[in-house]
Structure to design on (156 residues):
């Protein structure tokens, strides 16, 4: 059976307006990969344990594994948001590849729903990103897993 083409076979339009809507005021996680942590540690000129202690949190998931995420402020702004991203050049892959996340690319409905719930003014507008570029982004996200550690067993 031929695999049906994804809904974004003709590409998707997106141009970031740097409005910071995706960085602020909504609870969420910015999961970190090894390259992200290395880039941020270098940009912040600190060692890894200082970075983890000062800017990160471990987020438990269902199978007793914890994933590394950036912290957020009491108002749910990202820990690095200060009138814009204060680590823009070293920002994590999750931020760089927004809104081309697997969860948003499952269907045209999930894409439309995401653009509405996230209130991103750049989704559906501006630059056309071809399918090949989108699939290269998904392949990279898949190839570079989020940093994890064994956490306490979570009773279901
Ligand atoms: S690291 Fe920068 S781009 Fe990413 S959520 Fe935080 S402020 Fe936004």
């Amino acid at each position: 059976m031929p695999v049906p083409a994804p809904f974004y076979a003709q590409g998707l339009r997106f141009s970031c307006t740097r409005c910071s809507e995706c960085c602020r005021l909504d609870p969420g996680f910015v999961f970190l990969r090894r390259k992200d942590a290395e880039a941020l540690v270098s940009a912040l000129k600190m060692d890894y344990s200082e970075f983890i202690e000062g800017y990160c949190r471990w987020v438990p998931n269902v199978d007793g594994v914890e994933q590394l995420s950036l912290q957020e402020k009491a108002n749910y702004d990202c820990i690095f948001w200060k009138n814009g991203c204060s680590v823009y050049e070293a920002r994590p892959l999750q931020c760089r590849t927004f809104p081309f996340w697997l969860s948003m690319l499952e269907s045209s409905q999930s894409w439309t729903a995401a653009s509405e719930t996230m209130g991103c003014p750049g989704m559906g507008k501006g630059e056309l990103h071809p399918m090949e570029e989108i699939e290269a982004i998904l392949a990279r996200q898949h190839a570079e897993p989020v940093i994890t550690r064994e956490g306490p067993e979570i009773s279901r």
Observations:
- Residues 23, 30, 78, 80-81, 85, 87, 91-92, 95 surround iron/sulfur cluster (CB under 6 Å).
- The mean pLDDT is 93.
